[in-house]
Amino acid sequence: MKTTIHFQNSTRSITIHLPGILFRASTWIKLVVLVGVVLFAIQLVTISLYDGLLSQGLSSRRGLDRDLSKIQETVDYLSLTSDDFYRDERRLHARYGLPVPDEATREMGTGGEIASDSLLLRGMSPVLEKAAELQEETDRLKSKFYNNGESFSSLTHYINQRQAIWRFVPSICPTQGHYASSFGPRIHPVTGEVGKMHNGIDIGNDRWTPIFASADGVVEIAKLSPSFGNYVMLDHSNGLKTVYAHMQMYVVKPGEFIRRYQLIGYMGNTGLSVGPHLHYEVWENNHPVNPLAYILPNDHSVE
Asked: Distance between CA atoms of 202 and 268, rounded to whole angstroms?
């Protein structure tokens, strides 16, 4: 093939003979360049997408790390709280004379053999490894709480039973005042009889001083007696009975159920008495016992 080159502002020209293959190869060169440009553009888009996904992945990773740290703090708190709870439970068992739970039973095994693919994934990703460790720890705590629920329920049931029993055991001084006369033989202050058995204690105070039931029970007697004056007897349904004598007046009636600390009357000087006081008795299986053995430090005291 030939081509002619004309010079500007001149009548001269040059004719050059060129191989035809050069014109045929230019098409392929254009195609190669076009393909290269397209591939370069694809590479730029791919790199941009990769950077965006990587940035998003790193952001998600940081978010997961924060969430896992918060979960770890919660698990650690629950673990410490459970240890305190179990320590208190052991104290309660010892306090009530119950067998102390075996410490080994508190740590219950969880999980089992881990599949090889799971181990591989956990080894490749710190996040997955941390999540797996948290899962195992939460499963252990869950099993620990669940398997010891029966022990807690039994202890609660036992304590409730004991409290129900204690409600019917005299344990407080029924009134306030000074200790006037003890339990046992004495000279009767009215009749002068020597060696007369005094089946209770006397607590002296002003007339109309309130008198309270020392335990839950049912009013068996509420009446006026020549010797006891106005008096009340409570049956606590466990072989124990209490007597409150020489009252100015009583405010309960036979058959009435009475709670500990409930007002039953007022101190007086009725019956065989030389001054306002409460004569208080405790009977155990039809035998009088010293009431001081049934008075614990509480709201009411004997001075």
From this structure: 12
Q: What is the pTM of this model?
A: 0.55
Q: Which helix (H) or strand (E) holds 185?
A: strand 184-186
Q: pLDDT digit string (tens) for 262-277? A: 999 999 999 999 899 9
What does each C-alpha distance from 263 to 80, 214, 244, 250, 298 come to in angstroms?
46, 10, 12, 9, 16
Instruction: Say whether 289 sits in a helix, a strand or coil.
Output: strand
Q: Is 50 exceeded by the pLDDT of residue 303? A: no
Rounded distance, CA 291 to CA 271, Å?
21
Percent of the chain with pLDDT over 90: 34
Give the pLDDT confidence of 219-261 residue by residue, as tens digits. Answer: 999 999 999 999 999 999 889 999 999 999 999 999 999 999 9
CA distance 28 to 148: 81
Q: Which long-range contacts (CB under 8 A, 24 or more apart) does 176-179 make?
A: 176/203, 176/205, 176/209, 176/300, 176/301, 176/303, 177/203, 177/204, 177/205, 177/209, 177/267, 177/277, 177/278, 177/302, 177/303, 178/203, 178/204, 178/205, 178/302, 178/303, 179/203, 179/302, 179/303
With a pLDDT cut of 70, the percent of the chain lying above it is 57
The amino acid that residue 78 corresponds to is L
Q: How far is CA 45 from CA 37, 50, 51, 118, 169, in A?
A: 12, 8, 10, 34, 87
110, 136 contact by CB (below 8 A): yes
